[in-house]
């Protein structure tokens, strides 16, 4: 991918990891802040929608819809949709609108265990206010904001809920209706509009909920007032007198659907809101938290280093929040936190985010690989169109599976290792799950096509060796080179895996696969250090490339060469490069038994990238584009496959030579593999 960094962030964040202000709770599950300056929020997400909070009370920065794309411009590529914002509310006490300027004791808390995000504050010594945002895991197209107002004096309360439609949407229609079935009345605020270039219809519905009344009886509900400031700003409000020492509880819930997933998104969004309206709060939120409890059966527990525990758990929280085991969808580099990189799917998933999820949650891992097999036919057409055989996957993928990289970016036309990365992920899924039915139906059909691609993509040299020419490698600073180390190494690995997969299901593999794999060139300097490509002469690099041949590919296995490559290429890393290179180096050092260098590079892989006040990860030390899920995947790999000593093998997940940093007393990894094993490293 192409980094969009600014040197301006370098000075601002160079020492961030030293000065970050996080109030960490001792349970290792919550992160709190009372500092709303220089603020980057933590998204609440459920794999379908992402709700990014703001430091400003009652405001939501943005809402992101997963796998819902329209073109960014008439001549542009696809871009993930910015959803209608249902998270901005107004609250008035005694006719005064509450803002950050007239409140005190502001505090926000992320509870990773329950996937809740709570804001609390005081107003003028007469009220205490708390509200908690949920992206409901159980009702995945909806959000839920739970409010509690405690009056210390009698107050007059007014609350305004809104559906605010971004101006890029077309032809919005905003309404308010009270639906009725017998004695049950269901007030629904709704906006329906076309996406920016008309590809999709998006429908958003919302309503208020009162927990302490029977919501089926209209005369117990405050009177609702509909105000339509414009078709782009649809509002619903109520007023209530709250007496001294009383608590007033209510919620605001909304659902957002599109024609990407529903034939009738308007009606479906209504049904989800009605479900939330008429399901008791206790039951609705129990279902949400219970699903997160299931997710956290796959967990990483660090004793002796609370900050590392919080950092690692925040990374895992994001990977869980950005994915679903029932979706057959993948994860973009920024997950559901922003529209960065247009929400497209890169190698970031297969090489960086997927391995930790494969170890800890095979349901989610299956969705990630199924996303690719669902688009296999499109990849086969791409191979034909470029003169190759088999399947050729796009560097940037969207809902269609066609190439979604902007045409000006050479990565889209020449960064081909993505096809091998996908094949490797497929074989690793079988290695962990031993699901032969999946291998027959999805795994091997894809592996066969990507192996055929690499045979056709390779060029036979006069000495009988094979080259892969004219590619962009993992180090995108070196475009259009021959025999890029990682591209060649991943092709070798994928070809060999395809042969083993064929044998597993009783098919005779194409003998050419191993013949080509055995003769693809990996170039070396005279001293034995691996060359990044055929003409590499020491230029700086964007990210790890050669070192990936040691981990995760296991092509370079002798310690002498591994160390030469580590020491040589660490010095070549560009400061503005993404975080994953240090993660790779850290895993390798840990596997070599060098805990000191492993921990140094583990911290270097993410600490300079943390942004206040919660520690959201940016892509690089010099950028400000959180949340970078790819970096989260890298740091988790350091813990699982480095310190934890876990390996993906043809015999499943095994452990070899775990090692701990000096500051860690114990590392526990739970829910590993299909048997949900627990590994404890003292």
TrEMBL record:
Residues forming the Glycoside hydrolase family 65 central catalytic domain are 313-535
Alphabetical keyword list? Signal
Q: Does the keyword Membrane apply?
A: no
List the signal peptide residues: 1-23
Protein name (record): Glycoside hydrolase family 65 central catalytic domain-containing protein
Q: Which organism is it from?
A: Aquimarina litoralis
- Organism phylogeny: Bacteria, Pseudomonadati, Bacteroidota, Flavobacteriia, Flavobacteriales
